[in-house]
Amino acid sequence: MITVFDDVSFVQAMLDFERALSAAEAENGVIENDAAEIIGSCCDVLKFDLPRLSEEAVQHGTVVIPLVRQLTQLVAGKDKNVSGWVHFGTTSQDVIDTAMILQLKKAFRFMETDMIRLDSGLKSLAEKHEKTVTIGRTLMQPAVPITFGQKVKGWRSAILRNWKRIENTCGETFVLQLGGAAGNLSAFGDKAEAVSDSCAKRLELGLPDNVWHVHRDRLVAFCSSVAIMVGSLGKMATDVSLLMQPEIGEAFEPFETDRGSSSAMLHKRNPVSCLTALSASKRVPHLVATLFDAMPQEHERALGGWQAEWTTIPAIIEAAAGSLASMADVAEGLEVNPEAMRRNLAALNGLVMSERVTSELSKRMGRDEAITIVSESCRRAVDKDCHLSDILKADNRITKVFSANEINEFMSPDSYLGT
């Protein structure tokens, strides 16, 4: 993903725009076909001096001016008359915005590969552990029994929902930017729409309903959707990292030699994939906030707001890609320990069944009295470090309405798993 957004890829994406533009202009009679072919033949990043582009970009506030200058020189070397048609009718922002969209489209395809891995891994985990009983935890405390499959399904449902949201924004985001100096393509006259349509088709991008130089909602919506997914990946990472604590020991990231090792404490097995996802979940919201802050832009072309996106958007996508790839690795190789889940459940001495007991008692003696009895029973079980069922079977207020077998049934986690 870093390669998708590196200098070489960015410059090539801008040159892809220049090539498509000249071809579209030739197709619609703005320039000659030979001129478009010459311009297109020079749109190869390997022919450009990138260090010089970087230095000169500082002077102009944009890399496009020195880029067009180098391209013009290359074209002039083949035909000086054609060099005057380089970059005709367009502006720096058209080049950079469209290049960014081309990069985002490529980035989306890479993320899609990891999304498929993640979904497949989670689906398999959920099916395998559909009946694996574990502790449901609320407010960081044991609550009622659930299945591990339920937890995994929760992760998968949210992440799939997030991915669908990203897919939905792709259609409106992956569009051409071509507006010329002030957004009305005045240099093309009555051929403006035809040139735009042809250019978009050549780049395999959508054609927007209007120029979006200062209307950044598409990009903000796309990056916001990505940020929401990063948050859900962070949720999954939080759960896995908590389950990995040795005193819990219910699930672990895939084991590899030296993976998650400590430089000083050799016994440790750090959740490094979760670390990557959680790091992204803390960074990305603040990066997206920069995009929101930059949305109110001045008149037809912005000063500062648009430029703030140049490093912010790649940072968002790179962090998201790292998170997605890391959690796909986890989903594919998560080591689940059902025995530890049972052990931890048993260590609670039946307290996680208090809701079930209260519900059943309420049917016989009223809710208020049931709550009083079960609350007292739970406190005694904790004080005596014994099983809740032993306390219940010794209480004649309970035994006069329920048999020992019925109490045993109430205390069975497997019989209280709901949906």
Number of domains: 3
Q: Round the mean pLDDT to the nearest integer and report it.
A: 93
The CATH topology of the largest domain is given as Fumarase C, Chain A, domain 2
Q: Which structural class do the helices and strands define?
A: mainly alpha
Q: Which key features would you list for this structure?
A:
two-stranded antiparallel sheet; two-stranded antiparallel ribbon; Ribonucleotide Reductase Protein R1, domain 1; 16 helices; elongated; Fumarase C, Chain A, domain 2; 62% helix; mainly alpha; 419 residues; Fumarase C, Chain B, domain 1; 4 strands; 4% strand
Notes on the protein architecture:
The chain is mostly helical and 419 residues long. The chain folds into three domains: 7-88, Fumarase C, Chain B, domain 1; 93-176 and 211-344, Fumarase C, Chain A, domain 2; 349-415, Orthogonal Bundle (Ribonucleotide Reductase Protein R1, domain 1), CATH 1.10.40. Helix content is 62%, strand content 4%. It has 16 helices and four strands. It has helices spanning 7-27, 33-41, 50-60, 64-78, 92-128, 148-173, 192-203, 217-243, 272-293, 309-333, 338-346, 354-365, 367-384, 388-393, 396-399, 404-410, and strands spanning 133-138, 141-147, 251-252, 335-336. The strands form two sheets. A two-stranded antiparallel sheet has the order 1-2. A two-stranded antiparallel sheet has the order 3-4. A hairpin with a 2-residue loop joins strand 1 and strand 2. Helix 8 (217-243) packs parallel to helix 10 (309-333). The longest helix is centred in the first third of the chain and has 37 residues, at 92-128. The chain is elongated and about 105 Å long. The two termini are 40 Å apart. The relative contact order is 0.10. The mean pLDDT is 93.
